[in-house]
Amino acid sequence: MRKARKLAAVAALAIASPGLAEPRFTVVDPLAGGGPGDRRALADALDSGKIETIPTWTGAFPIKDKRYRFRLVGRPPDSSLTRIQVELVAIRLTVPDGPGGKTIVFDATGIMDHIVASPLFSASPTYDGAEFGDAMLRAEFPDSNPGWRTILEPVAGGEIAVAAPPGTVKIKQAKSGKYFGFIKDSSIVNKPIAAYLKAHGSHDRISAFITYNSVEKFAYGYHSWKWADRKKRAIDVYLYSSWMEGIDDVLGFPSPDAATLSHEIAETLHDPLIDSVTRKWGDPFRKNRCFQRLIEVADAVEFAGLRKLYAKAKGMVDGQPFDFTVQNAALLPWFAREDPSSALDGAYSFPTVGILTKPAPMHCVKRP
Q1: Which of 276, 356, 345, 273 lies closest to 61 in space, CA to CA?
Q2: Tens of pLDDT along 315-334?
């Protein structure tokens, strides 16, 4: 990957083809194409208050006498409550050439209530009445101010209608009767997202774009940021994610409902501007093969296997108890090479303690 592409990197959950493999993660950029500028200059401008965006704060940790800086969404652990709006934008994908020539519509508007009710945006008894992201942050900083909270507040956004040209979406029908769409040309979704951000993006909230039972060939999800104006005075933070229900047999693994969105939310909270870095780390489930320097918390469990990758969190759907699926992720002490971990219960992973049992090794194994 070229240097400019690395500077503009986003985190993504990618898949080679439907039903053939578990999800895997990569670092790419679907929208910007090139680097948005020197990230150190950007960080300095943010710290000086010259750029408007969602609230963020920076911290640092040493590894072998070198300091690494990270940026988190919200405010520092010695502060109190921070509320951040997340605009939920439903994508309505119409495919004209479905099975038997039938028109198939994948419409995320119908599952917005499920998303809002999930532990990503609602209090969950699994996390002692906290949201998923807030609980993860507090696990990383157990000595924080008791009133320290980072709450994501969902707000209804617009809708994006996408008409897929014939031949661009491969469709399979699950035993449940629901359809799964594999979007072979990711640009038919990414270009409308870019257009929406240009017309409606806002620097004071996170924009979240959601597809239903359909995924891009490029990615299940990604997160990034863009300049909100030509003068580079404001920044929009955004993410894309898919939400899947009732299509287990087509995917070849349990439909992950909130898992992909939890992946992108966790990574957005820990690296909103793609400038949280650490010493280069390796994949703990692939013989420590070198992966990257960015602190992309969900990527660290990429090849853990589904039993370790996913966790359950209690919530309510239509007034009835429902077990949502979320994804496990690495905590900051894992990236900081802390031994022992300063996180709650000495953990290196969240929400399931024990997925990672020790910090990332100091050195990773170069790819052949």
Answers
A1: 276
A2: 999 889 999 999 999 999 99
The contacts of residue 102 (CB under 8 Å, 6+ apart) are: none
The candidate with the shortest Cα–Cα distance to 259, out of 364, 154, 157, 351, is 351
Yes or no: say if 21 and 205 are a contact pair by the CB < 8 Å rule: no
SS3 (DSSP) at 340: coil
| Spatial distance between the Cα atoms of 115 and 138, rounded to a whole number of angstroms | 22
The encoded tokens of residue 122 equal 């609602």
How far apart CA 129 and CA 305 sit, in angstroms, is 28
For 361, the token pair is: 């090794």
Report d(CA 8, CA 357) in Å as an integer.
31
Give per-residue pLDDT as tens, 268-281: 999 998 889 999 99
301-303-308-310 Cα dihedral, nearest 10 degrees? 80
Cβ count within 10 A of residue 6: 16
Asked if residues 72 and 56 have their Cβ atoms less than 8 Å apart, the reply is yes
Judge whether residue 4 has pLDDT over 70: no
SS3 letters across 268-318 = HHHCCCCCCEEEEEEECCCCCEEEEEECCCCHHHCCCCHHHHEEEEEEEEC
Q: Is 142 left (phi over 0), alpha (psi -120 to 50) or beta?
A: alpha
CA distances to 30, 57, 89, 155, 192 from 116, in Å: 26, 26, 12, 9, 23
Looking at the chain, the number of H-run helices and the number of E-run strands are: 9, 19
The model's pLDDT over 96-139, given as tens digits with 9 standing for 90+, comes to 999 999 999 999 999 999 999 999 999 999 999 999 999 999 99
Tell how strand 235-243 and strand 221-227 pair up.
antiparallel
Count CB neighbours of 57 within 10 A.
Answer: 15
Closest CA to 274 of 68, 62, 43: 43
C-beta of residue 70 within 8 angstroms of C-beta of residue 59:
yes
Residue 297 C-alpha from the chain's centroid: 9
Q: How many CB atoms lie within 10 A of CB 267?
A: 28
